[in-house]
Amino acid sequence: NAGVTQTPKFQVLKTGQSMTLQCAQDMNHEYMSWYRQDPGMGLRLIHYSVGAGITDQGEVPNGYNVSRSTTEDFPLRLLSAAPSQTSVYFCASSYSRQGRTEAFFGQGTRLTVV
Amino acid sequence: AQSVTQLDSQVPVFEEAPVELRCNYSSSVSVYLFWYVQYPNQGLQLLLKYLSGSTLVKGINGFEAEFNKSQTSFHLRKPSVHISDTAEYFCAVNKNTGNQFYFGTGTSLTVIP
């Protein structure tokens, strides 16, 4: 099992450009989430999905779109990149079964917007 | 709403000394508690979790944590740290919804030789 795979690992964008961060999981988890990590702020939830076709906003959704057409994939789209979106982005998949839950994380995408 | 407070942003400690990383949470409902570790330029890896049962939870790499419901705390401890424990540590809560994990701001542990 590869777990959670994120691509790309690094990206530099110009202000106003758009791009998609890819995330795939092979654990058949129903839940997937995107977080951004900024110094001194921990991980903040951007968007999450509780299953294929269902997404919802987290704490910091502005400027980002998501969709979930399959259980495996959960791409994050930056519509018009801004310097404030410079961050490290983590995708996670998780489950909740019989009183057990855990989140598994990808290796992250380091995004710089200039 | 849930919130997580990690009281120390940076903790330096000498090799082979004990360490405690503090975590407090607030929630109107019962939550599950987690500690994750992040080594430089890597993703987050689960150290340990409290779901139910014994309030003392043992994890990987010799770490343990104790759930204290009355003090709403879930402090992480290790009796003797190694250089390889240098990393960022995150406390997190979840309502057992499977999604929406809420993280603290992290504690940077530096082990000094």
Cα-to-Cα separation, first versus last residue of chain A: 36 Å
Major pleated sheet of chain B: 6 strands, mixed
**Global morphology of chain B:** globular
Structural class of chain A: mainly beta
Overall mean confidence score, pLDDT of chain B: 92
| Order of SSEs of chain B | EEEEEEEEEEEE
The low-confidence parts of chain A are none
Overall form of chain A: globular
* Beta strands of chain B, count: 12
- Tell me the series of helices and strands of chain A, N- to C-terminal: EEEEEEEEEEE
> Which range best describes the helical content of chain A: under 10%, 10-25%, 25-40%, 40-55%, 55-70% or over 70%?
under 10%
List the helices and strands and how they pair.
The complex is a heterodimer of chains A (114) and B (113).
Chain A lengths: L3 E4 L2 E4 L5 E7 L5 E8 L3 E10 L2 E4 L6 E3 L9 E3 L8 E11 L2 E6 L3 E5 L1
Parallel strand pairs in A: 2-11
Antiparallel strand pairs in A: 1-3, 3-8, 4-5, 4-9, 5-6, 7-8, 9-10, 9-11
Chain B lengths: L2 E3 L4 E5 L4 E3 L2 E3 L5 E7 L5 E7 L5 E3 L5 E5 L4 E6 L8 E8 L7 E2 L3 E6 L1
Parallel strand pairs in B: 2-12
Antiparallel strand pairs in B: 1-4, 3-9, 5-6, 5-10, 7-8, 8-9, 10-11, 10-12
